[in-house]
């Protein structure tokens, strides 16, 4: 049984030129070329304003209502990172 939080250090980072190349591609094409292995699923949705968003995913997993690890991710993120947070999903609409 794991108790407490774990913070893993980044092992490697995607080159900025690769991110720029992917930014020009439609999301569906990228997902299809990766066999949808790393797709976030249908519940993944943008929380930014209108426009394109491309960057290195900086992933966070936490419990619903607990934002401690999200704050840690904001502290650790580097320019160009896109913070992707799994906080336990959303409640279905009635």
UniProtKB/TrEMBL annotation:
InterPro entries: RraA/RraA-like, RraA/RraA-like_sf
Pfam families in the cross-refs: RraA-like
Protein origin, superkingdom: Bacteria
Protein name listed in UniProt: Uncharacterized protein
Organism of origin: Vreelandella sulfidaeris
């Amino acid at each position: 049984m794991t108790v407490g939080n774990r913070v893993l250090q980044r092992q490697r980072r995607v080159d900025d030129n690769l991110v720029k190349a992917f930014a020009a591609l439609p999301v569906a094409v990228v997902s299809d070329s990766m066999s949808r292995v790393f797709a976030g699923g249908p519940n993944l949705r943008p929380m930014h304003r209108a426009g394109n968003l491309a960057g290195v995913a900086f992933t966070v997993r936490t419990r619903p209502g607990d934002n401690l690890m999200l704050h840690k991710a904001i502290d650790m993120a580097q320019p160009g990172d896109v913070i992707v947070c799994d906080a336990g999903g959303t409640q279905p609409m009635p």
